[in-house]
Design a protein that fits this description.
By secondary structure, the protein is an alpha/beta fold. The chain has helices at 3-20, 48-55, 72-75, 91-103, 129-137, 183-208, and strands spanning 22-26, 37-41, 60-65, 83-85, 107-110, 140-147, 163-168.
């Protein structure tokens, strides 16, 4: 499927997702309109990949585990160009797809906190896949905060017409490591990205009034339902 087909599918599915949920998008102007790009997001709920794809101002190929694609979410996978990781053995192939997509000028979304769910644990170690992709491509990075993207449990989708905040942060670039093939260099990049994302999520929570545990019933600061 070509990138133009991904964009067409996104344009068709986006309004459906926005009908199902009240999605408030802020900071979209931080997302470059073209060129290879890596979006890194927190991962609190099963619908994160779909919501990220619907809210982004340009088509995004989201890398996500197959376990988060149960039921209706799995039907959106191929149509939106999602890069699915079915098992640990599939991860190298998925990372190669992500690198190739960015090198081709596409945007790729990844979750540096790893598998669902992220639990707002400052001590949680970042996974190395997103850092590997960034080191291999030198891509510009945009942090994304997903708030209210699950129901009572991380494996539950948000309740219909619930409010979801998608907050895009300022784009940043990382200096190229002296030895980009070394594990130490990738670990350093992973920690830098994890910290930048954590700081952005904290700031986004403060601006929207979301509580730290991301209670889907918590009111927003601006009074939206």
């Amino acid at each position: 499927m070509r990138v133009s087909a991904f964009a067409t599918t996104r344009n068709l599915l986006g309004p459906l997702v926005r009908t199902a949920y009240r999605i408030y998008v802020s900071g979209a102007h931080h997302v470059p309109s073209h060129g290879g790009l890596l979006l890194i997001a927190n991962h609190p709920g099963i619908a994160d990949a779909t919501l990220l794809g619907a809210a982004a101002p340009r088509p995004v190929r989201v890398v996500s585990e197959a376990g988060a694609l149960a039921g209706a979410w799995s039907l959106l996978s191929a149509a939106t160009g999602r890069i699915v990781v079915s098992s640990d053995e599939d991860e190298p192939a998925a990372l190669r797809q992500a690198v190739a997509a960015i090198d081709a000028g596409e945007a790729v979304g990844m979750f540096p906190e790893g598998r669902l769910p992220s639990v707002d644990d400052p001590g949680r170690a970042a996974i190395l896949g997103p850092a590997y992709v960034q080191v291999r491509t030198g891509a510009t990075v945009v942090p994304v905060a997903l708030l209210g993207s699950h129901g009572r449990r991380p494996t539950d989708p948000p309740a219909p017409r619930s409010t979801v905040d998608v907050v895009f942060g300022e784009a940043f670039r990382l200096p190229a490591p002296t030895d980009p093939l070394s594990r130490a260099a990738i670990v350093d990049v992973a920690e830098t990205m994890r910290q930048r994302l954590a700081d952005h999520v904290t700031t986004a929570r403060a601006r929207t009034g979301r509580v730290a545990v991301d209670d889907p019933s918590a009111p927003r600061k601006d009074g939206a339902p």
